[in-house]
Every structure is written in C-alpha cells, then in structure tokens.
Amino acid sequence: MTRHTISEAVAARLHAAEAAIDTALTETAHLAALLPAARTGAYLSAVTGQKAFDGAAASIGALAEARSHIVDTHNALAALARRMGLDTVAVGILDKPEDSPPVGGGGVSAGIASKVNNSLSLSL
C-alpha cells in the first residue's frame, strides 16, 4: 500500500467517525427535547423521569466533547499529511467554515470509494 492509499483509508474512517458522532449527537438531542413533552403529555410530575433527562443531557455533553476530540484528531491528521507532503484527501462534505461562498459537493466518487474499501479490507 502506498502512503496515498493509506491516507485515503484514514480519511474515510475519520469521516465515518465524524458522521457517527454527529448522528449520535443529533439523535440524543432529539431524545432530550422529547422527554419534557412526553412527561407533560403523560400527566406526570416534574420529578418523574428527571434521572432519564439528566442522563440524556449528560450524554449530549459527552458527545459534544467527543466531537471536539474528533475535530482535534482531524486537524492533527491534516497537519501530519501536510508535513508528509501528501495531497489533501477530501472525503465527505467539503465545505469548511472559511469557505465563502460555500463550495458545495461532498462524498467520494465510486472509484475512490472502491479503492478505499478494498484497501481497508486488505488491512484488516
């Protein structure tokens, strides 16, 4: 495997991890938002379900911290790739906060996805 192929595989896994954390954060936030309405709709006391609400709220905090760590990982890997002279490897949504106007697009082509998936299966 070449360094470029390896960097593509790492980028694909990083994107998957970022997406998984964002999905978990979104779903947990939806759950936390639903709990007070569910309690009210069921005519239950505010005391009822407080531990569940606390748990959902704590989960949001933990997921936000995990998101921060994966962003730090992303930045560290990008810096490493630059130091190694590797081309930028773009997987997933391409827009960055500094893009004005947004670039749009995202994802990977079928050809790149196939190469990354093959390299991942060979490395496992």
What is the strand and helix layout of this fold?
Layout lengths: L2 H39 L8 H34 L26 H14 L1
List keywords for this structure.
single chain, 124 residues, mainly alpha, elongated
Summarize the structure.
Helices cover 70% and strands 0% of the residues.
Q: DSSP helix count?
A: 3
Question: What is the CA-CA span between the terminal residues?
Answer: 13 Å
Rg, Cα atoms, Å: 20 Å
Roughly how much helix do the residues carry, as a percent range? over 70%
Please state roughly what percent of the residues sit in beta strands, choosing from under 5%, 5-15%, 15-25%, 25-35%, 35-45% or over 45%.
Answer: under 5%
Low-confidence stretches: none
Report the sheet with the most strands, covering strand number, pairing sense and barrel closure. Answer: none
- Average pLDDT, to the nearest integer? 82
The tally of domains stands at: 1
Global morphology: elongated
DSSP strand tally: 0
The secondary-structure class comes to: mainly alpha
